[in-house]
TrEMBL record:
The keyword RNA-binding does not apply. Residues 23-42 bind DNA. The keyword DNA damage does not apply. This is TetR/AcrR family transcriptional regulator. Transmembrane segments: none annotated. Keywords: DNA-binding, Transcription, Transcription regulation. Pfam families: TetR_C_1, TetR_N. Residues 1-60 form the HTH tetR-type domain. SUPFAM superfamilies: Homeodomain-like, Tetracyclin repressor-like, C-terminal domain. Coiled coil: none annotated.
Length: 210
């Protein structure tokens, strides 16, 4: 009975049955022990889920080529890919951040890259939360539960609503209708990261202005 053994058992249940089945009692059954004994190693179910996500983040590549901005975007894209494969964990990550070594390494690397890019300490420290929120929110919105066909239907419905909108009442929506539905999830996600990165650098410039 170890913390890692509990996490490994939880990962096995997740792969076969989904996150809803990852309970203390279910894990205890796999490990042939009483569920109360698990609380010596895991604080509660929320802590367990956070540790599961952290274990999965071991697959995220921390280093790569290109500019500091390219590396930030690639790192966060990898983080988002893990979440997209496990939408239940993505929804959990909106309110509960993983706190294990793999997530910590991702945060450390993003902070290092922001510093390399010229961000001041406060802008980097506050900006990392916004940067992590982008792939997390996108993973929830474009989860694995949304099939390509359902996504196409959703976009078609949005397009129909835009076309039906009264241009007198909603002039900007009708004018920008094509742009509102343009770009796929990946393109828009990378654009969002660029916007946040630009904002971090702009705030740094403001902070340093005499």
């Amino acid at each position: 009975m170890t913390r890692q053994g509990i996490i490994d058992a939880a990962l096995g249940i997740l792969a076969e049955e989904g996150l809803a089945k990852v309970t203390m009692r279910r894990i205890a059954g796999v490990l042939d022990t009483g569920h109360a004994s698990l609380y010596v190693y895991v604080r509660d179910t929320e802590d367990l889920h956070a540790q599961i996500l952290d274990a999965m983040l071991a697959a995220v590549e921390l280093t790569g080529g290109g500019t500091w901005r390219d590396r930030v975007k690639a790192l966060l894209a990898g983080y988002g890919e893990v979440l997209r494969r496990h939408p239940e964990l993505a929804r959990m990550a909106l309110s509960t951040r993983p706190n294990g070594p793999h997530f910590t390494a991702i945060v450390e690397q993003v902070l290092a890259l922001l510093s390399e890019g010229g961000a001041d300490d406060r802008s980097a420290a506050w900006g990392v939360d916004l940067l992590l929120l982008v792939p997390t929110a996108l993973a929830v919105e474009h989860s694995a539960e949304v099939t390509p066909k359902r996504e196409e239907m959703r976009i078609s419905d949005v397009e129909a609503r835009i076309k039906a909108a009264d241009p007198q009442k909603y002039p900007n929506i009708t004018r920008l209708g094509a742009e509102l539905v343009s770009g796929d999830g990946l393109v828009r996600g990378l654009w969002a990261l660029d916007v946040v990165l630009d904002g971090i650098l702009a705030r740094t410039a403001t902070n340093r202005a005499p």
